[in-house]
Amino acid sequence: MLLAIPAAAPSRAQNDQTADQSSGRFRDAVTQTRMRAVPRRAAPSALVSRVLEGFTERSIDAFDAVPAIVVAPSSMSQDERDEFARTFRATPDGYFARLTRDDYDVVINGTLAYSVPPASLRFRRRTGRFFVQKAQGETDISFSDFGGDYLIQFICHEYDEDQIGGCVDDDEATALFDRMVPLGGGLD
Hints:
Blueprint: H1 12-22, E1 32-35, H2 45-51, H3 57-64, E2 70-73, H4 78-87, E3 89-91, E4 94-100, E5 104-111, E6 113-116, E7 131-135, E8 138-145, E9 148-156, H5 170-178, E10 180-184
């Protein structure tokens, strides 16, 4: 003799989780982007005013209109300052600008936005003043300072497909990182 035993109905939580899994969605697998508060007075005004020499008033106003502190290499030539100002673009959460070298371009990004990883992901925190990452034809340095996050990208014009990092070695990349100074932005 067979007995039919009714199965317990799944709970709402089980139904929701099953539905999310079967449709390929996981509620906690979406990275959230948030904005930091504007870091007012994060860069000392005296330091900013020393490195602005050579920039036009229009460029300085553009830097100051950005929510993040704008950083760039110190000791730029006038041509480099002109290119930085010409390629400078404000974004809702920061900025980016480019400098062209003989063998590569340097793209400098600054932002107040940060990502909150989903609870289901584990990640390793970086240690030290900066983090170097290499890809095919590119070397990147990321760092946090003045209340924001920054990324310096060294993008090679030509590179060997078998070589990771391309045309910029760690010493050259960190030498430029060590020259980064605030230009403005995020100030009252």
